[in-house]
Design a protein that fits this description.
about 475 residues; mainly alpha; two-stranded antiparallel ribbon; about 60% helix; elongated
Length: about 475
């Protein structure tokens, strides 16, 4: 596969670890490890194990395309591979190739090997991304920009908090992937998950797990491949695949969150962020597209459907399903590639991300101070009551938008007019203006807000970031 339509994973470690040759090598590694494990517990000669290991050491000796075509005969590539591997070893070692195993034992184990070999560099890239985001969050702890909800300005936030949030998701992904990686098991059960053939070949009977003989075989197999010994054969107990699918889909989505934010904030009209090396256009020389963010987003869009296929395969009938197991192979490979490629692109995107604080600051004033209206409601509510405060701010907001002025200026005029209309102290029977000041309100405190300096402070977006700095610091304490 050339990867022509898959730039998100082309050239990545994930592509190399999941290619046809890599899968073929994993199948061969599983076969060789099984023979060595049998030798370790006295079920095969050590000479046979050495011969099978030598024959299986180089996948290029085998024709992957021919194996694929011949796999149509039995429904999986292990069957023709066993025939070719058997032919490649000396005659006295041939009986020990694949002895006692079923095709699913080898293929499932190979899938776990490929997963392990893909997840290791993926975790490295997640670590790169996490470190880059930690630097951004620390550097921009107090860099204020508009918070946006439902595409519109909400209240101010900080870029440090935004980057800390992205980092938190990356760490969540790291934890899930690390857990899945640590739990990857070998598969060994024989024809129907009973290990019966190994006992038959070994001449032993059933017994408790031990270090030698059939009961110790699975542990020896796991040691050979640095994978986990499962409690039971999992031919139709697909927890390892389901857990892996969930971790990979989460990873793609977690990285996708940062990517869609970067793409949005890189829009020409916004320009608060930019990738350090934007992509060009075949038709428009001026374009600098957020390509890394685009590729990560594409992976995040595809991953859930692939994971759904793998989760759907949990419903696997009998001791070997007809189709559920077979349906897993390509989606799992694609998920490994998507997540691995996205992790590579996320590391590159975050390490080179350009932040434009001056543009962020300009955007804080786009609504003339209305971005802090929530704060003003809180200030005016004790003086007017919540309903009247919202009415006052609603009128001020309307005039700010219609007249194209700053909220502080409009509010100052409204409050000054209100102060001028207050009753004279010598005429105690005169009522306050209708609908503004309820009985018992400190009118003097309300009028005091007319002070331009006070209004300027109250409507300054950089003074209304709540606990953003503290939250950022707390998030950065997580390792």
């Amino acid at each position: 596969m050339s990867g022509l339509f898959f730039p998100g994973w082309a050239g990545s470690a994930a592509e190399e670890a999941t290619g046809d040759l890599a899968f073929l090598q994993a199948l061969l590694d599983a076969e060789a490890a099984l023979t060595r494990a049998q030798a370790a517990v006295g079920l095969a000669p050590s000479e046979a194990a050495a011969a099978v290991t030598r024959a299986a050491a180089d996948a290029t000796r085998f024709d992957a395309r021919a194996l694929a075509l011949r796999a149509r005969e039995g429904g999986n590539p292990v069957i023709p591979l066993v025939a070719d591997l058997t032919a490649a070893v000396p005659a006295d070692a041939a009986p020990y190739v694949h002895r006692g195993a079923t095709s699913q034992d080898i293929l499932d184990t190979a899938l776990m090997l490929v997963a392990a070999r893909t997840l290791d560099p993926l975790l490295t890239d997640l670590s790169r991304t996490e470190r880059a985001l930690a630097r951004l969050a620390s550097r921009h702890r107090d860099t204020v920009l508009p918070g946006r909800t439902l595409t519109q300005h909400a209240v101010p936030t900080t870029f440090g908090l935004k980057a800390a949030g992205w980092r938190s998701l990356v760490l969540d992904a790291r934890d899930r992937v690390s857990g899945a990686r640590a739990a990857l098991p070998v598969q060994l059960g024989g024809a129907a998950g009973t290990l019966a053939a190994f006992q038959a070949y070994g001449g032993g009977g059933p017994g408790l797990p031990g270090e030698r003989g059939v009961p110790g075989l699975v542990a020896a197999f796991a040691r050979e491949l640095a994978l986990v010994e499962p409690l039971l054969p999992w031919h139709t107990l697909r927890t390892p695949v389901a857990d892996l699918a969930a971790a990979l889909a989460f990873t793609a989505g977690a990285l996708g969150k940062a990517a869609v934010d970067v793409a949005t904030l890189s829009r020409t009209e916004i320009g608060e962020l930019s990738e350090d090396s934007g992509g060009g256009s075949s038709a428009m020389p001026h374009k600098a597209n957020p390509v890394r963010a685009t590729l990560i987003t594409a992976a995040a869009r595809r991953a859930p459907a692939l994971a759904a296929t793998l989760l759907g395969s949990l419903a696997a009938e009998d001791e070997r399903p007809a189709g559920a197991w077979h349906a897993e192979w390509e989606p799992l490979r694609d998920l490994l590639r998507l997540a691995g490629g996205a992790a590579r692109d996320a590391a590159e995107m975050t390490e080179g991300l350009r932040v434009h604080p001056d543009v962020m600051h300009e955007h804080l004033d786009l609504t003339g101070g209305l971005i802090v209206s929530e704060r003003l409601v809180a200030v005016f509510t004790p003086l007017l009551g919540r309903a009247r405060a919202k009415r006052l701010l609603g009128e001020a907001a309307r005039r700010t938008r219609v007249e194209g002025r700053m909220l502080a200026e409009v509010l100052g005029e409204i409050l000054a007019d209100f102060g001028a209309s207050l009753p004279d102290e010598s005429a105690p029977g005169e009522a306050a203006p209708e609908g503004i000041a309820p009985e018992g309100v400190d009118l003097a405190a309300l009028v005091a807000l007319c002070d331009p300096v006070r209004l300027s402070e109250l409507t300054d977006p950089t003074r209304y970031t709540g606990s953003a700095g503290t939250l950022t610091d707390r998030a950065l304490e997580r390792r």
